[in-house]
Every structure is written in C-alpha cells, then in structure tokens.
C-alpha cells in the first residue's frame, strides 16, 4: 500500500485547508495524550506520597509534607517562586518555610522547639528526609557504619554539587574514597611542613592586604578580600603557587595575567555555581544569557588552570626523575597526587600522556591512566573546599568583632602578652601556634563557627536495610526504614538549649544566639578549652569522613587574626557620619539571619561597610 498523506497538496488554498485539518487532528490526538500523562503522573505522585507516609507514620516522629524535594532543578525554578509567595502573602507556617532553602539559618532551634522533638521528617512524594538536631543520633549517622560495614554514604544531591569537575575525595565512596583520603590526608591534614606554609602565607597575605588598605584608605569588601587571602594560602600550601594579594577589582582588571584571570574565573564560578552544576559548560556557553555563558566559560577556565598546574608539576617530576631526585619529603598536594597517579614511574613518563592542546581541551581527569583517573579531581575539590569555607569564617569573625569591639581588645591583649615586643611577621607555626590554641583567638573561631557554621547541613543516606539509631536524653532509639536521607543540621545542634544552657544559668542568661566567645575559654587553672556535649558542635563534621582541613583552618585563622589585629582594629564605616554604630550592628545581624548556602553559608545582601584603622594603644 502506498500512503501519500505526507505529501501536502500543491494548491495554496488546499494547503491551508490541509494544515488546518492536520493541526486539528494533532491537537485532538495530543490533548488526550497530555491529559492521560498528567493523570498518570498525578496518580503516581499520590501513590508514592501515600507509600512514604505509610513508612513514616508508625514511627511517631513529627512530620511535614511538602510537594517537592530540594534538588537542583526545584532550587532554580520552584523555590524562588515559593519564596516570593511567602514574602508577598506573609506566610509563616512551617509547611511553607520548609519549602525554602536555608530555613535552618532563620530558624536555628525554633522548629525543633515547635515540634517538641530534636528530629522531624520532611515527607515528599519522592524522598523522605529526617532533619536532626539530636547529638547522639548525629554522631551515629556520621561516624557509625551501615549494614554493609561501610560508612553511610552521602546522598546524591550533596555529591553532585561538589562533583562538578568529576569524582573526588568528597564525592567518592568506599574503596575509591579510601584511595583519595590515603594520599591527601597526610599532606593537607597533618604535615607540619604544610602547616608551617599555611601560617607563613596567611601572614604574608594579610600584610599585603593591610598595606593596600593603608595606602588607599578605602573601606573593604571583606568576603571577597578574605577569599583572596585564603586562595593565596591554599595555592601556596597545596600547589606551591605564589599569589600576591590584590583586591578582586584589580585582579579582574589585570585579567590578562594568570592570577587575575584565575581569581575572576573562581569568582564567576562561585556566583553561578548552581548553573554550572546542572548543565555542562558547553551548553551554558551556547545560551543567550550572559551570566550563564560566563558561568560555562568560568568552569572551562578553571579546568584550563588546573591542567596547566598539572602539566607544570608533571614536567618537574620528569626532571627530578632524570636527575634521580626522588620525591621530596615536603611534597605538596599537587606533587603527591601527580606522583600517586603513576606519573613518576620512568616508563610512563617517557611518552607524554596527552598533548598540551588535548590537556587543555579535555577535562583534567582524562590526562591520567584509567585506573587512577579518580585521583585527578582532588586538586579541584581542595580549591573549592579549602578556600571559601575558611574565607567566610574569617570574614564572619571580623564582622562579629566589629559588632563586639570589646573582644578585639581581649584578642589584642592576648597577642601582646604572648609576643611581647617581637615582630608578629617573624612568628612561626612550630614556635607559636600552640600558645594561641586555647585562648581568645581559638574561642572567637569556635564561637563564630557555632553561630554560623560554614556548612549548614551535612547528610547521609540509609542503605537498603532498616537501621537503628540512638537518641540523646535517654529517649528510646529509633529504627528507620531503608532509603531515608538524614540531614544533620549544624545550626540546630549548636543552638540546642539542652546542650548549650550553661550550668547554673537559665537558657536566656546563656545567650545561646549571641556572640559570647568566653564560653569556650578554659576554666582558671586549666589549659583545655570547653568541650561541648559530643555531637552538639560539629562544624567540621566528625568520624572518618570529617573535614580534612580542620587543623589547616585553625592554623590559617590564628595566623590571620594575629596578622590583622596586632596593628589594626576593625570598625563599621559611619558613611560620613550618616550611620551610627547601633544602626550598622542591627544591619549586620539582620544580614546574618538571612545568610544562604551557595557552596558555603554566606551573605546574600549587602553587609554594612567596615574599615581597618590603626590600633590605638
Ligand atoms: C571553616 C572551614 C571549614 C569548614 C567549616 C569545613 C567543613 C567541612 C564539612 C562540614 C565537611 C563535610 C564532612 C561530612 O560530610 O561529614 C568537610 C569535608 C571536607 N573538607 Fe572541610 N571545612 C573547612 C575547611 C576546609 C579546608 C581548609 C580544606 C582543605 C584544605 C577542607 C577540605 C575538606 C575535604 C577534602 C572534605 C571531604 C572529606 C571526606 O569526604 O573524606 N575543608 N568540611
């Protein structure tokens, strides 16, 4: 049989008629198809929700139902709309704010107080999430093992965010993760040589920053400024790269030099991170929106810089091999990774793995032998994980010190009493870190991270078998069904009055939501800092997957504070006398209530301006 329907009649009038018939018939065909699909989808959604509720209801734990899971797509398309509705209609019920992002920053412990429980479920048709501000349970989830004898894994949404450049120490699980950790932990986490570099470079960066502000008498853009400081520190400690401190605007204006372009690309990438996560760079670069094109370009540039750094190090190892120099004991992160990926074996090095243009054109990962490809993404995760978190913690601390100048004085007195007349720029990690590790600087870091942990939530997933978890306060353990996600709420934990009300004081006297670094200081006659109830303060998480950079951050924070406050003090800028201290302080607190998680917790609005002034003695 010969069908000729696809050949439209040539006559113009007939053609119009044919088109009408065609569009009517396709509409007639598509409408029922669309309706049936929509009905099937709704039926499936209702059925899934019913199944999830059947899992949750018998447990007797409070729960809220919301219609979607906060994956990357709802984050972009749905949640901003919900946030707008909430603002316009002033909706305050938990059912609504739980649909937004970062409700935990605004709520702190209040939602747990409202439900009368330190754990509660959010039930969506697709997933059930248990939110936890119970320290015993948090410890078991983060440090305990699942049914297969392995640590509980991170849910996909957490890994996918940081897996932008491929698998790495953060996103890997099981044996692959152990490989990453074995190589990276000794270099970043423990090596005193690296920590000495961290100390030295933090002081250098701060010296350069202060010199700049001294000359310019400008007010500073603190979050960006400290991102530059910590980028300089991780670049030197992890990659032996020296980056002089310059403000972001100057770095961008000097975009032609490598450092400027590098900082610009990281800045654009961080500002548009969610887009870079949901779409590959080549798609973003084709879209008609400037911001998205820039995000795609920045992700590509970032790979390009990593490839260059990799190539440089490969060449150095090749040279070392030829001159029979083995790996030096002070090898940095990049060198350890490149060597661990088999590149220091003479035979492999004879032939280049990829030409320069291939390296530049491909993701960094493809430059390595297949079995070791997973190691290649570690440098990227170290830049991402190791610079924003600590930069924002330092900037948050600076704002707290601007709001509470009395603690600047305490800090400065501590520095003077330890250093006497000696020059702080001549100090070293080995000789000085311990002296500062249980005083005001350490207390200010702990209190800053208690009020504003760099990472608001960390999460784990229960595998295919039910698991039982302990609960604090003598409550009965709870057995959770399979495939549930458990989100550990750092802020809920560090504001939980059961663990933060001080002995002999009421909850309000303990000022749990306020900046009181003295709560961490050792009691008189003792040298150990206050140790909170296990699990109630975990900004670096705990267990085998806890933060690799905890000591790194502590050293960086200490040297930075030393460098800043030995000679300088921080103040709110009065904007030519138009803003009082109280107004600036209120503005600052209001901004802090509205911090959002991009990669780390950070301001979304404008923080009040601050300025560095010579310390009065
Ligand atoms: C204030 C600073 C920092 C904070 C608050 C912080 C916090 C965290 C948290 C909460 C985790 C997740 C652990 C989990 O899911 O259980 C983590 C993981 C990690 N952090 Fe940090 N971090 C900081 C600084 C750093 C620095 C400076 C580095 C590197 C130089 C670093 C490297 C890592 C790595 C590699 C992981 C993944 C560990 C693994 O999965 O085995 N972090 N961090």
Automatic annotation (TrEMBL):
GO terms for molecular function: heme binding; iron ion binding; monooxygenase activity; oxidoreductase activity, acting on paired donors, with incorporation or reduction of molecular oxygen. It holds the Pfam family p450. Heme binds at residue 547. Its cofactor is heme. The chain crosses the membrane at residues 21-42. InterPro entries: Cyt_P450, Cyt_P450_CS, Cyt_P450_E_grp-I, Cyt_P450_sf, Cytochrome_P450_monoxygenase. The keyword Ligase does not apply. Keywords: Heme, Iron, Membrane, Metal-binding, Monooxygenase, Oxidoreductase, Transmembrane, Transmembrane helix. It comes from the Eukaryota. The keyword Transmembrane helix applies. Belongs to the cytochrome P450 family. This is Cytochrome P450. The lineage of its organism: Eukaryota, Fungi, Dikarya, Ascomycota, Pezizomycotina.
């Amino acid at each position: 049989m010969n069908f000729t329907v696809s050949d439209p009649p040539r006559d113009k009038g007939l053609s119009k008629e044919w088109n009408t018939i065609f569009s009517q018939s396709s509409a007639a065909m598509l409408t029922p198809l669309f309706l049936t699909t929509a009905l099937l989808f709704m039926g499936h959604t209702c059925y899934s929700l019913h199944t999830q509720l059947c899992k949750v209801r018998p447990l007797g734990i409070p729960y809220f139902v919301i219609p979607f899971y906060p994956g990357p797509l709802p984050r972009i398309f749905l949640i901003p709309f919900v946030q707008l509705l909430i603002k316009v209609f002033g909706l305050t019920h938990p059912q609504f704010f739980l649909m937004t992002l970062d409700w935990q920053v605004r709520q702190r412990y209040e939602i747990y107080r409202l439900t009368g429980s330190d754990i509660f479920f959010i039930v969506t048709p697709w997933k059930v999430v248990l939110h936890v501000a119970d320290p015993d349970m948090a410890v078991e989830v983060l440090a305990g093992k699942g049914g297969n004898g392995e640590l509980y894994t991170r849910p996909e949404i957490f890994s996918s965010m940081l897996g932008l450049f491929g698998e790495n120490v953060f996103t890997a699980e099981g044996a692959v993760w152990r490989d990453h950790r074995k190589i990276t932990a000794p270099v970043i986490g423990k090596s005193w040589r690296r920590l000495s570099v961290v100390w030295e470079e933090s002081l250098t960066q701060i010296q350069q920053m202060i010199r700049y502000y001294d000359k310019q008498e400008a007010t500073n853009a603190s979050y960006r400024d400290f991102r530059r400081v910590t980028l300089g520190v991780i670049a030197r400690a992890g990659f032996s790269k020296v980056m002089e401190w310059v403000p972001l605007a100057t770095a961008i204006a000097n975009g032609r030099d490598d450092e400027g372009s590098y900082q610009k690309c990281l800045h654009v990438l961080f500002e548009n991170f969610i887009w870079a996560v949901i779409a590959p760079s080549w798609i973003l670069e084709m879209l008609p929106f400037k911001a998205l094109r820039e995000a795609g370009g920045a992700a590509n540039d970032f790979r390009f810089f990593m490839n260059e750094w990799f190539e440089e190090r490969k060449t150095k190892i090749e040279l070392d091999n030829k001159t029979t120099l083995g790996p030096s004991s002070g090898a940095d992160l990049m060198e350890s990774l490149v060597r661990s990926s088999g590149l220091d074996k003479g035979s492999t090095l004879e032939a280049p793995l990829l030409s320069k243009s291939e390296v530049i054109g491909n993701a960094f990962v493809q430059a390595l032998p297949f079995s070791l490809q997973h190691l290649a993404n570690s440098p990227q995760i170290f830049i991402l994980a190791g610079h924003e978190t600590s930069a924002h913690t330092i900037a948050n601390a600076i704002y707290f010190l601007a709001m509470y100048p009395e603690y600047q004085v305490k800090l400065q007195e501590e520095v003077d009493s330890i250093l006497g007349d000696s020059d702080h720029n001549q100090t070293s990690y080995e000789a000085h870190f311990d002296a500062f590790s249980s005083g005001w600087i350490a207390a200010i870091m702990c209190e800053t991270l208690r009020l504003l942990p760099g990472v608001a939530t960390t999460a784990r997933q229960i595998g295919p078998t039910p698991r039982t978890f302990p609960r604090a306060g003598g409550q009965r353990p709870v057995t959770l069904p399979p495939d549930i996600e458990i989100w550990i709420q750092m802020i809920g934990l560090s504001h939980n009055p059961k663990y933060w009300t001080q002995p002999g004081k009421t909850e309000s006297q303990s000022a749990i939501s306020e900046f009181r670094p003295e709560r961490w200081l050792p009691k008189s006659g003792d040298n150990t800092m206050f140790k909170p109830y296990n699990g109630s303060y975990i900004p670096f998480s705990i267990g085998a997957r806890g933060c690799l950079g905890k000591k790194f951050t502590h050293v960086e924070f200490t040297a930075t504070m030393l460098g800043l406050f030995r000679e300088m003090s921080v103040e709110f800028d009065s904007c030519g006398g138009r803003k009082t201290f109280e107004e600036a302080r209120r503005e600052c607190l209001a901004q802090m209530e509205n911090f959002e998680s991009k990669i780390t917790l950070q301001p979304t609005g404008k923080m009040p301006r601050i300025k560095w002034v010579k310390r009065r003695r």
